[in-house]
Amino acid sequence: MTRLGRSDxxxxxxxxxxxxxxxxxxxxTSFAVLDAFHAGGGNFIDTADGYSAWVxxxxxxxxxxxxxxxxxxxxxxxxVVATKVSTHPDFRGLSAANVRAAAEASLQRxxxxxxxxxxxxxxxxxTPLEETVAAFGDLVSDGLVxxxxxxxxxxxxxxxxxxxxxxxxxALPVAIQPHYNLVHRTDVERDIVPVAEQYGMSLxxxxxxxxxxxxxxxxxxxxxxDSPRAEGAAKLATPAGLALIDALEEVGDAHGASIxxxxxxxxxxxxxxxxxxxxxxKVEQVADLLASARLELSVDxxxxxxxxxxxxxx
Length: 314
Known about the structure:
By secondary structure, this protein is of the alpha/beta class. The chain contains eleven helices and twelve strands. The two termini are 31 Å apart.
């Protein structure tokens, strides 16, 4: 287990992504995935109020609703649920009134009294940051949220958030959720990691497997497969990208680990990273995800993968 930033949240260093629940995973599959994740020691679930409004027939909140039904059915112990605000069709943006209303709606869908970790999903240039920071602080003071966090914020805006929170005495963010993986490193390592280290915040990276490319499933630039993300993943199948997959396979084979497990283990070992986020639309995918939380790569192996990834940046 690892501690998330300066919070009191102890988590397995792998977060189960809830973006597929209500999208590529129906109710029964979602429950099976959640069951397998929890049975394997996983306790950190990531979702957002907007998941999965992009699916025809959905209206947003489907993922939270399924997670809430699973929580009510299974009553699991020590589960940490993270969700986000700003993308639900009915609750867009980060005005104080919207943040409060969206949090209350998420609480109802999840069926919990308190959200463990609440992210500002995307920065809102139309709302003064002071207003957003105060709104998140009020949610913590009022007991609706335990800890706050930010997602997709620039380093400059994160520093501004922290300064405003310190000045007003409200809860400081404990985590940052950036787009970060072996084929997308440069901006995060240059800009976001130093901020996280400065303020004692943890990184919880999304797209940890690069839309499936870092599973080794896509070995050509042709968009094949049944995943809605196949086209994006296949575009990464450049000569440098495939050389990276070969390096992952080589390192993984030395540990009896899959390419996906190895890619997640590399990410978990990076500075300030607490728990990469990875999703599973099939229950048989869960074991590889969980294995990454326990795979310890050597210094030489980590350096080898980093070198292989240098030429494969998207």
